[in-house]
Amino acid sequence: MSRQLLISVQQGRRLVVVVAMLIALLILVWRAVSLQVLDKEFLQNQGQARHMRVVTLPAHRGMILDRQGDPLAVSTPVESVWVNPKELVGVQEGLSGLARLLKLDRDHIQQLVARHAGREFVYLRRHIGPALAQQVSAMNIPGVYLQKEYKRYYPAGEVAAHVIGFTNIDDIGQEGLELAFGDWLSGKPGAKRVIKDGQRNAVEDVESIRRSQPGKDLELSIDRRIQYLAYRELKAAMKEHKAQSASAVVLDVRTGEILAMVNQPSYNPNNRHRLQRKTLRNRAVTDVFEPGSTMKPFIVVSALEAGRYTPETPVSTSPGWFRVGRNLVKDVHDYGLLDVSGVIRKSSNVGITKIALSLETKRIWSLYSELGFGVPTDSGFPGESAGLLTSYRGWNEIETATLAFGYGMSATPLQLAQAYATIAAGGIKRPVTFLRQDESPPGKRIFSARVADQLITMLEAVTGPGGTATQARVAGYRVAGKTGTVKKSVAGGYAEDKYLSVFAGMAPASDPRLVMVVMINEPDNGKYYGGQVAAPVFTRVLSGALRLLAVPPDDLPLLQTRHGGTGEPA
Questions:
Q1: What is the mean pLDDT of residues 183-195?
Q2: What are 429-455's pLDDT values in tens digits?
Q3: 3-state SS of 236-274?
Q4: 274-278, 361-365, 374-378, 537-541: least confidently modelled range
Q5: ω before 71 within 30° of 0 (cis)?
Q6: CATH 3.40.710.10 segments of the chain
Q7: What is the pTM of this model?
Q8: Are 240 and 234 in contact (CB under 8 A)?
Q9: Nearest-10 Cα torsion for 389, 393, 398, 401
Q10: E strand residue ranges, 430-513
Q11: Which fold has domain 224-269+284-562?
């Protein structure tokens, strides 16, 4: 009986086990059906949610082009190396090789990972070349990834650096036109949803959220050929005369376009490891100086417009000095009796002072103001200076006198160039611009065309025999201009051994097309007069620029003499 009971118990146990196994099998089958059929879509969505990511699509920044369509700033695709500290913690294999590739210290990488252990994204090295990126990818280190970005490149280098400026590592404008037109140049990043594998590699595109929109190209008025000419000649002059700094501006008289703008010292925007803040300024727009004798022609404009003088009106400059209150205004020589044209040709301080003191101060101030002195040019360049022009209500006789020959006020090279372009345009002031213009913009008449013509004739005599700017001549072209030799302002007055050398001129004088201003700060090689230091730069730049623009010569007799009477330019 006991044996039968034992057998029965054993059989019961087997049955329980079999039933339990069948139940477990049924549960597994049901679970499999549930996972594979009934809950398939839900589980797929859950899996995708854990591996699906929104990826940013970088936008291409617009190019900056010169007026000929040549690139001055372009964006090139590069890769950046980033790491996920959560994944990289504890990884040792390959870190030494990665550090060598990226020229980093292994300890630096480990410290970076430890410092940002709670984050999922940290840049390790940005903007590397394709070959290096391929090497990094081939190492297949867990937690180390690549990301596509764009790097800005400047083909003209330091030649156009002060005008173009540069962007930071995130492609955001920091200086120059890159900053001024940042909104125009910047694109709008796109986005797409992708599925990534365990190595964070995108294995499937799910959907496009928004397309990336590239930035718009910016076409400048700058002519890279003339820009290079101005850069080369200004740099050579600065080196020759051992100057502290220098600036030059070339304007198109018809349109107000800035064809060239250069400064020394310059910098290379493609290599910014050793940049100094003082080299970044576009001095032609941001720095002011007392323009000296280059202001004398505008006193003559005021005098001619008032009807008090003609180019032939005599002005006595003897004995070479003139007392204004307790102050003495001096000339380099006693020029005796000069007409108004002679006052400009000889750059007589005494003569221009007498003319200025015979005019209403309000008339002088109004002309200076209308020409743009004391206010920004509205070129749109970041940090542009307005210069200084005080109200005429506070002028006494000596202030009127010094303002007549360019002391007691300040201006930028661009402001001075715009004022001379007004003379060259027949008395019409046009806005200056860094953007290419297809048509001549409307301007504002500041003084009559008759007075402008008379003044250009006087300024042409400055570059002729007996003038102060004989070195400003350009073969084949008539040149009109004015020199300035300015003592530098220092604490307590003016230095006796520090000068600014300035020349402002236009060509061809018969129908001016180009205006150029050259300013060289503290020449220190024995020469300092504007006609000796600044005027030759004008000559060398305009000689090339006029020919590059195919401006017809207006001084053919000079060419005939120099080239055997053929009448053809060499």
A1: 75
A2: 999 999 999 899 999 999 999 999 999
A3: HHHHHCCCCEEEEEEEECCCCEEEEEEEECCCCCCCCCC
A4: 274-278
A5: no
A6: 224-269+284-562
A7: 0.84
A8: no
A9: 60
A10: 444-445, 480-490, 493-507
A11: Beta-lactamase (3.40.710)
Cβ(414)–Cβ(515) under 8 Å? Answer: no
Amino acid at 480: A
Average pLDDT of the chain is: 88
- Among 16-30, 39-53, 113-127, 362-376, name the one with the lowest average pLDDT: 39-53
Stretch 392-403: mean pLDDT, rounded? 94
* 45 compared with 504, residue with greater pLDDT: 504
**pLDDT class of 563 with cuts at 50, 70, 90:** very low
Are 242 and 506 in contact by the 8 Å Cβ rule? The answer is no
The residues of the chain that CATH labels 3.90.1310.10 are 54-219
The domain 54-219 is placed in CATH, from the list 3.40.50.300, 3.90.1310.10, 3.40.50.2300, 1.10.8.60, at 3.90.1310.10
User: CB-based contacts of 374: which residues, under 8 Å, 6+ apart?
Assistant: 368, 386, 387, 388, 389, 409
From the list 245, 247, 293, 543, the catalytic residue is 293
Known catalytic membership, residue 293:
yes
For residue 445, the 8-state DSSP code is: E
